[in-house]
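Appendix B. One record, verbatim.
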Amino acid sequence: MTERRKVRCAIYTRKSSEEGLEQAFNSLDAQHEACAAYVASQKHEGWVLLKDRYDDGGISGGTLERPALQRLLGEIEAGRVDRVVVYKVDRLTRSLADFAKLVERFDKVGASFVSVTQSFNTATSMGRLTLNVLLSFAQFEREVAAERIRDKIAASKRKGMWMGGNVSLGYEAKERTLVVNEAEAETVRAIFGLYLQWGKIRLVKDEADRRDLRTKLRPHLEGRARGGAPFSRGHIHQVLTNPVYIGRIRHGAKTYPGVHDAIIDQATWDAVQSKLAENAAKDRGSRASAGGALLAGKMVDETNDRLTATHANKRGRRYRYYVSNRLIAKGGDARASGSRIPAATLEQVVADALARRLGAPGFIAGAIRAASASEIEVAHARCRKMSDTLGEQGLFDEALKLIAEAQIRPDAMSITLALDGLAKLLGVGADRLDPERLSFDEPVSIRKRGVETRIVLGTAPVEIDRKLAGRISASVRWMDELRAGASMEDIAGREGVPAQRLTSLLRLSLLATDIIKAVSGGAQPERLTVDAVLKSPHLDLWSDQQRWVSRL
């Protein structure tokens, strides 16, 4: 008698809210117990329950970015799970689109899943048909509920009620309204006052750092806290444009009188908005005069010095650059320290970093508060369209307009997205976005080439100068042959190199060992070339060589 094939079963459980999860026997345990009993009832079919549990507590079914689910999918694709058992199909997903993705991944490895309270499984065509029908209704139910909630939120906001989300700096949540936190309110008033005094967000940030002003400290469910950090320029702009500080509640593009107290008076608010609009117009004019430099006014270098858009004309061709302002102030002195980056290179790297961020798993679901499955799907489609067509100039320009500010450092790039621009791209109101998701870092590798800079997104592979390394190796070998008694003429004849050239190349064998080691690892300055070494007068002492190389 043929032994029945073993069917390895994994139980997946999920609960949308965290309510009751602290209990000794909670909803996840109840689901697991029911599924385990079902697996036991199928023992005669060869079903075997795996020991590991896959529980997602307090996580919506509107997204697949769930820790336990992702771990389970990894086990399935590794061939260690044959069947997923769930209490109800909507525990796995409420989205028809997500279900199609899951079934496709299951099919690739010959896996399936079973619902213990619904009489079907995906191993049969009828089971799949029934499941599609049920999921259609589940998704419909979810979207109707989401619409009902959005309508309720909109009606409540029209009455001036605060409807949840991240509490703005200067306030604390109390039931359905906001109460002033006087200590934080002083920080808000200080930021508005500094902007009226200095008129530039960059200068406001410098003064805020000097005063050690900090963002709101927010408690976290796991006991940690977020926030309490120095203000970024993007965060300062958000404070200056948040109507909650004049006692209003924002919903989409509109604001309504709130039931909470204002922190900023109307006159101060109007003066700040007027100055912001004036500066925005100046920035647009400066970008136009800079020949369409889309990052003008937004980029700073590692010292927080502004990168100014400039250009040079050579043989009738225009070359655009972003240059540290101090280099321009010093008349373009090549010996001055600072960045000089080709504009097209920097703009492309920023656009690529933006595309990578928008496509990152979980970014959209985390950025939009209380996002429905359909909203996430629409937002993903919009982001894919932008990233897939970045080569088209119109969309490339639109992508860079999403950047509120950015800083380029030797090992990373910090980017803050524009709140309104991101909201427009994702198709939601600005009040639905989490401001703390607007800033992110991307690793970069920067290499100097003369006074210019080359940038690679991510960690750049080591680039070894094969010509220089090869010439050094050959010169060391030739020097050993000469010491062993070979003649210069014999070596020159064998190598097909004129004796005078061979004599010059032998100078490479006199380089310090640490310089040769750097060349073999691709860590030498890019200006250290064969010709540079042969023309240099600094080869007598290793210490002279090292000082010379350090200045390249």
